[in-house]
Every structure is written in C-alpha cells, then in structure tokens.
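Standup notes, protein team

Yesterday: finished cleaning the Shewanella psychrophila set.
Today: Plasmid segregation centromere-binding protein ParG structure.
Blockers: none.

Input for Plasmid segregation centromere-binding protein ParG:
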Amino acid sequence: MSLTDLKRRKKKTPQAQVSIEDFIEDANNYAFGQPSVVSKSRKKLSKIKHKGLDKHSTKIYKHATFSLTEDAIGILDRISADKKIAKSRLIRILIHEFSVKSENEQSAIIEFSDD
C-alpha cells in the first residue's frame, strides 16, 4: 500500500436519472452547438450545494503563508469563534481597515505595536 491509497477522496455524488427523451434532446442540442439541458440542471444543483469561497467569482484568492505569535493566533481564534467568521476573512478585513487609515494613524499603530 502506498501513501496515495491513504489520501482522502471525495465521495461521488449519485448522478440524477435522465429520461431517454432528455438524453436525446441533449444530444441534439450538443450536435447543433446549443447549451445542454441536462448540464444546466446539474450546474444549478452544484451552485446550490456550493458553500465557502467562490472560485469562479471576480475575486481571486491566493494561498499565503506567514508567521504569527502564539498570542496573535489565540486572539485570532477567539475572535473568529466569537464572531463566527473565518480567520482568513477576518485577516482580510483587518488588512483593509489598516489600509484605509491615514499615514499618521498607520505609523502610530506600528509604533505602539509590541511585535
């Protein structure tokens, strides 16, 4: 057994039954370059089930790695749990709030920071 055998895999969702008429109509649509009737309903279902980051939105999220102190991690965990908000979203909010402050306010925050 290799390590790839231990990898978690997504459970396959059962495919919805498609009637013969819909299948034939879908094949005709495909032949004429028209949108698929069957795939439209599947896309609607996947959009309904989809939660979390929208990978197809106009916002592009990139993975970032950075270091935080144990105290900062604890505070971040506590705020995240209290406000029921994802830590990454909370960090994005804090970055935005810092960026809209004046140059003097930013300097004061940096000066009085104990990090």
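Follow-up from PR in the comments: The chain has two domains: 16-51, 53-115.
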